[in-house]
Write a structure and sequence with these properties.
By secondary structure, the chain is of the alpha/beta class. Helices cover 34% and strands 25% of the residues. α1 runs antiparallel to α3 (77-86) and α2 crosses α3. The model has no long low-confidence stretch (mean pLDDT 94).
Length: 206
């Protein structure tokens, strides 16, 4: 049996794991602020589906090293690791999160969902030892210029960035172009008409 996300078939096992992750967020959120309380009634669409589209934005790429920075409660990192495992991709997903309690939650989710190719680095991004990554993702973490600065040490011209951005994404692009050279596609969000996923390649300093 299979289910669909954005017109793409995922296995029943993968779908069930995403639902189990949703339940984990519900269980832990009262003690750790993983998502805004106002969104608890619609975690599936506001957070799980919103994160899943980052994974699907990478179609055509076969990353072996995917680094998700500022992972928080695993959005999108846990979702990406679940979908990659379900597609039998040999993708190692590393989630970098400085908050110790959120890192405990991430490791619990990894263990309970059986995500053998996922791991957590509980450090600040600036001090973490991260290998050069095929894909770097982030959701609601920092302005684009700052994301590039944070990612500089573990990216190269072959790295693809997948950054979820809100309605001010165009001004962030313009500001970043003062300091960085890159090509990008703005992929319209399926969950927010004002938002995009910035798919960025060819990254270098000006």
């Amino acid at each position: 049996m299979s289910d669909e996300l954005f017109g793409q078939n995922v296995s029943r096992e993968t779908y069930d794991k995403l639902r189990a992750y949703e339940a984990l967020i519900q269980k832990w959120n009262p003690s750790i602020n993983l998502v805004a309380k106002s969104t608890l009634s619609d975690i599936w669409n506001r957070h799980i589906i919103d994160s899943a589209q980052v994974y699907f934005a990478a179609f055509g790429e076969k990353p072996s090293i995917w680094t998700d920075i500022g992972s928080g409660g695993g959005l999108p990192g846990i979702v990406i690791a679940t979908l990659a495992q379900g597609a039998d991709q040999q993708t190692n997903v590393t989630m970098v999160e400085s908050d110790k309690r959120k890192s405990v939650f991430l490791r619990t989710a990894i263990r309970e969902l059986g995500l053998s190719s996922a791991k957590v680095i509980n450090e600040r991004i600036e001090s973490a030892q991260i290998p050069i990554s095929d894909i770097v993702s982030a959701r609601a973490l920092a302005p684009l210029t700052d994301l590039f600065t944070l990612s500089w040490e573990f990216s190269d011209q072959n790295t693809t960035f997948l950054f979820q951005k809100g309605e001010n994404w165009a001004s962030e692009i313009e500001m970043a172009q003062n300091h960085w050279s890159f090509d990008y596609d703005a992929i319209k969000s399926e969950t927010d008409s004002n938002a995009v996923i910035l798919k960025i390649r060819g990254f270098s300093r000006v």
